[in-house]
Specification:
A hairpin with a 4-residue loop joins strand 2 and strand 3. This protein is α+β, with helices and mostly antiparallel strands and about 120 residues long. The strands form 3 sheets. A 4-stranded antiparallel beta sheet has the order 6-7-8-9. Strands 1-2-3 form a 3-stranded antiparallel beta sheet, with no helix packed on it. It has one domain. Bound molecules: zinc ion. The site of zinc ion has 7 residues, from loops.
């Protein structure tokens, strides 16, 4: 029997067993809190304080920046942190009307949204 490639395991956050691990693409991410394992040697010096506050080892909140949109964890403290999605106009300026917020501990909702938006 073939060993299963992708496994859901316990997240370093300790509150989730929906942590996705793919050995094939060397990718680990918690579907509940969005903590994502960074490749060895990633320079996190310049990461925002909020990201450092939530980090566990080399696991950090999710961040994505494309030419069309960005996703990042926004907030003034750990208490009000939310994932935010926002699109850019052709001058790379955020379009406020496209802004969407997602609960930090419901990261899967954001993934589903991104999946629908980008296909
Ligand atoms: Zn987690």
């Amino acid at each position: 029997m073939q060993e299963q490639e992708n496994l859901l395991t316990i997240c370093p956050c300790g509150k989730s067993n929906n942590c996705y691990n793919s050995k094939a693409i060397n990718f680990s991410q918690c579907f509940d809190c969005g903590l994502t394992k960074l490749p060895e040697g990633t320079d996190t010096e310049t990461y925002p304080k909020l990201y450092k506050d939530f980090s566990i080892g080399n696991w950090f909140p999710y961040y994505l920046n494309t030419k069309d949109f960005t996703v990042f964890l926004d907030g003034t403290s750990k208490d009000d942190a939310k994932y935010v999605y926002i699109e850019f106009d052709e001058n790379k300026k955020p379009i406020q009307s496209t802004k969407k917020e997602f609960e930090r501990n419901n990261f899967y909702e954001l993934l589903k949204f991104l999946n629908d938006e980008t296909i």
